[in-house]
Design goal:
By secondary structure, the protein is mainly β. The protein has two domains: about 90 residues, Elongation Factor Tu (Ef-tu), domain 3 (Beta Barrel); about 70 residues, SH3 type barrels, CATH 2.30.30.240. It is about 5% helix and about 45% strand. The chain contains one helix and 13 strands. The two termini are about 25 Å apart.
Length: about 180
């Protein structure tokens, strides 16, 4: 899989259609503390290619959700195609002060097994008490997210230059 021409960061996920006017409910990533700039496009993957969309309207709904309307997305059928997909923004929109250090900095890295086979892309960091995990968007199962515990016996190498993490995948984890 080739690298995108622009560096994108996942900031939210499409949860479901909301109402009949082309609105959708989105949930912000726990690590995203900023706001989405309505004047700049957001990106959603179609067939592995980030497609830009301009925002018609966005309104907060609680602390971690919002209602979003995108140009060109008018009905439930179109929203159903992107339900479950991540919404990305260009990393240049995030100020350095807003970017967290720690496991969240690895979002966007490729996860590979010990043999070098790509498993997927790290899309999320979940800070579960006593068991922090990466949420991996799998190459072989498009609709499923793999949760990989962040542990020194599992993560065996991190290459910041190639944005790749090599892991010793626990037996049976990929079959779940």
């Amino acid at each position: 899989m080739s690298e995108p021409a622009i560096d994108l960061l996942p900031v939210a996920k499409v949860i479901k259609s909301f109402g009949i006017k082309g609105e959708m409910l989105i949930r912000y990533s726990p690590r995203f503390k900023g706001e989405i700039d309505e004047k700049r496009p957001v990106f959603i993957n179609y067939d592995g290619i980030p497609v830009p969309f301009f925002i018609e309207g966005i309104s907060p709904k609680g602390t971690d959700q919002a209602l979003l309307r995108l140009e060109g997305v008018f009905n439930e059928t179109q929203i159903a195609e992107i339900t479950g997909e991540f919404i990305y923004i260009e990393s240049s929109q995030i100020q350095d002060d807003d970017q967290e250090q720690g496991p969240s900095q690895f979002i966007g890295y490729t996860l590979a097994d010990e043999a070098g086979k790509a498993i997927g892309i790290i899309r999320e960091f979940y800070d579960y008490p006593g068991n922090p995990c990466f949420g991996i968007s799998r190459n072989d199962k498009k609709e499923e997210e793999l949760l990989l515990p962040i542990h020194e016996e599992i993560i065996i190498a991190i290459n910041d230059k190639s944005k790749k993490i090599t892991a010793r995948i626990p037996e049976g984890l990929l079959e779940l």
